[in-house]
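Practice record 12: protein with protoporphyrin IX containing FE.
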Amino acid sequence: MTHSHTDRGHPTRSVYARRPDSVQNPLPTATAVDTAKILAEVELPTISKGPIIRRPRMVAAVENLGLEARAVARLQTAAEKYGRGPLMLGLPGRKMSMVLDPEHVHRILEESPEPFATAETLKRHALKHFEPQVALISHGAERARRRETNEKLLDHNQPIHRMAEQFMPAVREEAQVLLKQIDDAGGTLDYSNYFKAWFRVVNRVVLGDSYRDDTELLELMETQRARGNWAFLRPVDTEARDEIHSRIDQAVAKAEPGSIAAFMSQMEASGDFETSRDEDVQQIPQWLFAFDPAGMASYRGLALLASHPDRLEAARHQIEEEAQADVPLLPLLRATVLESLRLWATTPMILRETTQEVEFEHGVMPQGTTVLIFAPFFHRDEKNLDFAHQFSPEVWDHERTREEWPLVPFSAGPGLCPGRHLVLLLTSNFMAQIVGQRNIDLLSHELEPGRLPALLNNFSLKFHLSAR
Ligand code: HEM
């Protein structure tokens, strides 16, 4: 047993046994020039695109200028020069580090929220604009009970949510409405139409059928998310934030059958939660927010299918096989969404913050360090993955393990996205309605199967749908 007691049993730490700290044994630090390059080529494009709500014009610019590929290349150069890291950035007054080693990705995500807190400072400032009590930016016991509430409501370990059968009419009906609208308009599907239809599904599933056309809450959320993009640089609009919470509170009180709001109300009534009503209500803006990237990912998934006819055929085969199921599982369409997220991560930067000093092989990370995991660096690493730039749904035919290369579109460990199965359930079934009933051709882009682009702008993606 190792201990630091003296021979006489005094609980004082021996100076000899004391572990070197972040001052005596620092991690490698990037030079000022390299720090500037990493900030300019990795951080800046990510922030410009909009971390909390995407800015379509900036997404287009990043796509056109090829900045996403440059970001990955920049970190590859850094890893060659500095080794495994984590690499401290040479910033005055701010402790930041970039993760460069696949093993460290696993470790950091598994050792969340202690010592790697999910409640990182910038994230806290961004999310406080609409959900200051959400699990993701909470600490300790508060985080634990808020996380548990999310896990229960989202049935987070179940590929098929316990209420899935009740969600299916919304998915099928809204897809039908969308298809009719596209047919009537000559067959062109664009993101705006797709997004509106998708959010009609989301509103019905989360809040209830009568919220189908409620764009007001969505708009309120969008305005607050736009403020969130600026984090602490914008003051919180508490009135708008209260309005969001009060509308969600009303939906929970209404408890429309078949909605997760009703499930919440039921669980509250039966004393299943340690959280208060206020806390419960504040978990839901995160869901409404996060269903937005789910729309992007599934829409890009359609582009993958349209440009890979063999996969599309296989997906249609599964759709037909499960046509009679109450809730089809659709593994290939789920894997398509996961691939879309691997190729074009909607949470490209996973952030953590150290609550104490942490020892790594090559040095000690100070307390209060922001830890940056840039997912595309790992997801699109052609030096280590032969499928880096290809559509490879088979990599998702099993749960990814710690022994494997980190593919973390939904994060991992105790901070793993509790909504992932619900996302995959709803997106796969929504996509099935489209590709099961229509031919689908990509109009706006040409995707080369062996060399998929580093970014695919969902806002400019267009398809032509025709009768099968
Ligand atoms: C494509 C869609 C989505 C993606 C890619 C995604 C990804 C992620 C990621 C990467 C995290 C970890 C973030 C971090 O550590 O900072 C996360 C957390 C979370 N996600 Fe998702 N998510 C999606 C959709 C959803 C949906 C639709 C819901 C709810 C219905 C949801 C609920 C949550 C919650 C509650 C957390 C916080 C978990 C915690 O505090 O530990 N997500 N998600």
